[in-house]
C-alpha cells in the first residue's frame, strides 16, 4: 500500500517538451506464396521525434509522442530485392512509470502505450517487380494500430533542461496496402521497430 500511495500521490503538474533523434531497426515479416517465400519489410534508417508530457503524480506520468522514420518498404528473396521510397509516422500516447520520485536528478522509467502508425509511400511503385509473383509493392499508404513498450532514463542537466535516453519497440500488424501478397499468398509476422533515441527536454 505504501508503494501504491507513492506512485499515486498527487502533486502540482510538471510539463515536459522535447525533441529526439535515433535509429529505427526493424524485425520484419515474411510472405509465403505458391511461387516461394520472400522477406517483406522496411529499411533500417534514422528517426526524429517530438514529445509533450505531463507528470500528474509522483511516479506516474503520460506523454504524447510523434516519431518519423525514413524507411523504404521492400521485398527480397533469392538475392533479388525491390523497394520503393517511403517513410512512417507514429503517433501514440504512453504512460511513464518512474522508479524514482519527482525531483530526483536521474529518473529511470518504464513505458507502455497505444496509437497509430502511418506508412507513407512517397515514390511510385516500379512497373516491373521481379518478385511480384510472391508479393508486390503497391505504391499506396496504410495506417495500422500501434502498441509501444520500452523504457529509458531522464537526467537533469540544469534547473529546466534534461537529457533523455529512450528505447521503444513500435509494434504493428502487416500493412497489406503497402506490401500486397500475391493471390493465394499469406503474410506472416508482425513488425517490431526497435528504436533507441536520445533527446533534450525542457521541464517546467
Q: Major beta sheet, specifics?
A: 8 strands, antiparallel, barrel
The total strand number stands at 15
- Using the 3D structure, state the CATH architecture: Beta Barrel
Provide the CATH topology. Answer: Porin
State the separation between the terminal residues, measured CA to CA: 30 Å
Q: Which of globular, elongated, flat, extended, rod-shaped describes the shape?
A: elongated
Assign the CATH class: Mainly Beta
For this structure, the quaternary state is single chain
What does this structure look like?
This protein is mainly beta and 204 residues long. The protein has a single domain, classed as Beta Barrel (Porin). The protein contains one helix and 15 strands. The strands form three sheets. An eight-stranded antiparallel beta barrel has the order 1-4-5-8-9-11-12-15. Strand 6 (73-77) and strand 7 form a beta hairpin. The two termini are 30 Å apart.
Q: What's the quick description here?
A:
The chain has one helix at residues 2-8; strands at 10-27, 29-33, 36-42, 45-57, 60-69, 73-77, 80-83, 86-98, 106-121, 135-137, 142-156, 161-172, 179-181, 186-188, 191-203. By secondary structure, it is mainly β.
Amino acid at each position: 500500500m505504501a508503494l501504491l500511495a507513492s506512485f499515486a500521490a498527487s502533486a502540482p503538474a510538471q510539463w515536459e517538451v522535447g525533441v529526439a533523434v535515433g535509429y529505427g531497426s526493424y524485425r520484419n515479416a515474411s510472405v509465403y506464396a505458391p511461387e516461394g517465400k520472400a522477406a517483406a519489410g522496411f529499411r533500417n534508417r534514422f528517426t526524429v521525434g517530438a514529445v509533450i508530457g505531463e507528470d500528474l503524480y509522483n511516479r506516474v506520468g503520460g506523454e504524447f509522442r510523434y516519431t518519423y522514420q525514413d524507411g523504404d518498404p521492400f521485398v527480397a528473396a533469392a538475392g533479388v530485392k525491390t523497394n520503393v521510397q517511403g517513410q512512417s509516422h507514429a503517433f501514440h500516447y504512453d504512460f511513464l512509470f518512474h522508479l524514482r520520485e519527482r525531483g530526483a536528478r536521474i529518473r529511470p522509467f518504464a513505458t507502455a502505450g497505444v496509437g497509430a502508425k502511418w506508412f507513407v509511400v512517397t515514390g511510385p511503385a516500379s512497373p516491373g517487380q521481379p518478385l511480384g509473383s510472391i508479393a508486390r509493392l503497391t505504391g499506396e499508404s496504410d495506417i495500422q494500430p500501434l502498441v509501444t513498450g520500452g523504457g529509458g532514463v531522464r537526467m537533469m542537466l540544469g534547473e529546466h533542461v534534461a537529457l533523455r535516453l529512450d528505447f521503444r519497440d513500435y509494434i504493428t500488424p502487416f500493412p497489406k496496402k503497402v506490401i500486397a501478397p500475391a493471390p493465394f499468398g499469406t503474410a506472416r509476422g508482425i513488425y517490431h521497430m526497435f528504436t533507441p533515441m536520445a533527446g533534450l527536454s525542457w521541464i517546467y
